[in-house]
Amino acid sequence: MIPLKWLSFKLPFHTLLLPLLALTLAFSLSFSGLTQAADSAEEKTSQARPAERKVASFAGPEYWKAIQQGETGRTQSQAREANQLINVQGEEWRIWRNQWVTPAGAYAMGGTLAVLLIFYILVGQNKLDSPRTGNTVERWKRFDRALHWTVATLFIILAISGLTLLYGKFFLRAALGDSLWGNYAIACKLAHNYLGPLFVLGLLVMIIKWMKNNFFNSTDVKWFMQGGGMVGKAHPSAGYMNGGEKAWFWVLTTVGLVVCISGLVMDFPNFDQYRETMQQANLIHGAASLLLIAASFGHIYIGTAGTEGALEGMTNGHVDEAWAKQHHDLWYNEVKNKK
Question: Does the residue 337 lie in any domain?
Fold first, then answer.
């Protein structure tokens, strides 16, 4: 038992004040030390994770504005292009493709077909002036014909599949329905992707094989000045290849190589191209392909309905002497003299 007199014992106020002040000071110093230690630990953690601090500091209106503008370095990813959340160049590509390349290609192809149709109605086929002799001259070797038809077949398949992917959604989708259109579009895409490299190889062989006969000379200048004999009764002289055939060869060589190179860029994304590079290649590929298709209409017209007997040389390899004299007289004289 504690004596009651101890409980009733009273100390002076100033005697109790000093210990209380000392206790308060000690507690304050201890709390300050804990706070400083916590701040130091937080600072070390923040230094160890700079990306997290950056994201946190920008997680506001300015941060999202920068994201919408396509700025890079706004994520923790260090992979190439993975630190750009929004690819703003994609919208520019879409505008160029839909508002410029697509309609311009349609105008070019439609305009070319219209001009050829009008020309055929007004002028008609370029027929032989003299009857066929029945004697033929070999114009194309079997390898040349096989090479031509291989490249031509690949070109037609690639043209149809490419035009389907570019324009098909405007009319084929509604006509075929979503399911059938989707399967056809996938088939076109696969054909385009896998046959494209074969076309590149065939075109390169064709360019190397036929280049020696396609350099321009003064005879070709006269041929162009006389309209290639398509209008009127004049038949300008020409060697093994006339000016028009040479012009088509160089269009196919230059524009065709642009089509091939840009197509390979898109066909092999594992070359680690940037997205912007792929988009630019797509625009170049589309524009060059549409130009080449439009130009091919003229070549096909002249080689079939436009000129009597022209297709025979590329089907069976031989042409009638009357045709050779009329369209390639210089070459015919060379062949005759050799015999």
Answer: no
Task: Please check whether residue 99 lies inside any domain of the structure.
Answer: no
As to burial, measured by CB atoms within 10 angstroms (0-12 exposed, 13-18 middle, 19+ buried), residue 110 is: exposed
CB 124 within 8 A of CB 315: no
Is 204 within the bounds of a domain?
Answer: yes
Sign of the dihedral through C-alpha 300, 147, 247, 130: negative
Q: What is the mean pLDDT of residues 88-92?
A: 84
Q: pLDDT tens digits for 100-159?
A: 999 999 999 999 999 999 999 999 999 999 999 999 999 999 999 999 999 999 999 999
Q: Is the dihedral of CA 240, 245, 248, 250 positive or negative?
A: positive
- Reported as type and span, the H/E element at residue 67 is helix 61-68
For the whole model, what pTM was predicted?
A: 0.78
Number of domains in the chain: 1
Print the domain residue range for 184: 141-213
197-203 contact pairs (CB < 8 A, 24+): 197/264, 197/267, 198/154, 199/151, 199/154, 199/155, 199/158, 199/260, 200/260, 200/263, 200/264, 202/147, 202/150, 202/151, 202/154, 203/151, 203/252, 203/256, 203/257, 203/260
Query: Per-residue pLDDT tens for 220-251?
Result: 999 999 999 887 778 899 999 999 999 999 99
Say how many CA atoms lie within 13 Å of 132 toward its Cβ.
11
CA distance 334 to 241: 13
Two structure tokens written together for 212? 């020696």
Tell me if 93 sits within 8 A of 285, measured CB to CB: no
Domain-located, residue 152 = yes
| 314 close to 142: Cβ distance less than 8 angstroms | no
User: For residue 55, what are its two tokens?
Assistant: 């994201």
